[in-house]
Design a protein that fits this description.
- The complex is a heterodimer of chains A (109) and B (113).
- Chain A is mainly beta and 109 residues long.
- Helix content of chain A is 0%, strand content 43%.
- Chain A contains no helices and eleven strands.
- In chain A, strands 2, 5, 6, 9, 10 and 11 form a six-stranded mixed beta sheet that branches.
- Chain B is mainly beta.
- In chain B, 38% of the residues are buried.
- Classes of the chains: A mainly beta (109), B mainly beta (113).
- The interface between A and B is medium-sized, with 20 and 25 residues.
Chain lengths: 109, 113
């Protein structure tokens, strides 16, 4: 069975501080991992996916198959990063995105 | 290029009634997926339509059904509404079953009373 766990419901950091949003998954095959973000009053949008290995808005995420993790990191948080962040997994043989419950990031000045 | 549009934005229904939610996919996309997002939860996959055929389904009962039309727009139908069906229903479109990622709509907020 596939499962995505985001252990923190809420993460509060100061502006300029590093931020790490945790995501752990369970899946026996080779998954495709994503981070989606939802800013206040906006729709869910793709932030990044592990296969593209790119940095978006200063965020990066590395897939660690040994630890089955896909943590999202940013070295210096900005107030505009405050949003709800969802980690999602897609099985290599499937089509559905399996989402975690999300972490609300609050960046305070 | 237009994004994914969903209608209506809000809806209140009575337990036992039926509801139809609509989704227009992004231009160039031929795949539509539907998700249910309960309060405080992540979105849960309901089903996916590709070229007018359902080709994937999550753990939802048969009273959740759908359609995809030749223009790739889609409907989600829910029969015999229950209080637990109250949620935000999200539609996501993509090209060829998720190739290149999914574009989400703003959702329809359904309240069952």
């Amino acid at each position: 069975a596939q499962r995505v766990t985001q252990p923190e419901k809420l993460l509060s950091v100061f502006k300029g501080a590093p931020v790490e949003l945790k995501c752990n998954y369970s899946y026996s095959g080779s998954p495709e991992l994503f981070w989606y973000v939802q800013y206040s009053r906006q729709r869910l949008q793709l932030l990044l996916r592990h296969i593209s290995r790119e940095s978006i808005k200063g965020f990066t995420a590395d897939l660690n198959k040994g630890e089955t993790s896909f943590h999202l990191k940013k070295p210096f948080a900005q107030e505009e990063d405050s949003a709800m962040y969802y980690c999602a997994l897609r099985a290599n043989s499937g089509y559905a995105l399996n989402f975690g419950k999300g972490t609300s990031l609050l960046v305070t000045p | 290029e237009t994004g994914v549009t969903q209608s209506p934005t809000h809806l209140i229904k009575t337990r036992g009634q039926q509801v139809t939610l609509r989704c227009s996919s992004q231009s160039g996309h031929n795949t539509v997926s539907w998700y249910q997002q309960a309060l405080g939860q992540g979105p849960q996959f309901i089903f996916q339509y590709y070229r007018e055929e359902e080709n994937g389904r999550g753990n939802f009962p048969p009273r959740f059904s759908g359609l995809q039309f030749p223009n790739y727009s889609s409907e989600l139908n829910v029969n015999a509404l229950e209080l637990d069906d109250s949620a935000l229903y999200l539609c996501a479109s993509s090209f060829n079953q998720g190739f290149g990622g999914y574009t989400f709509g703003s959702g329809t907020r359904l309240t069952v009373v």
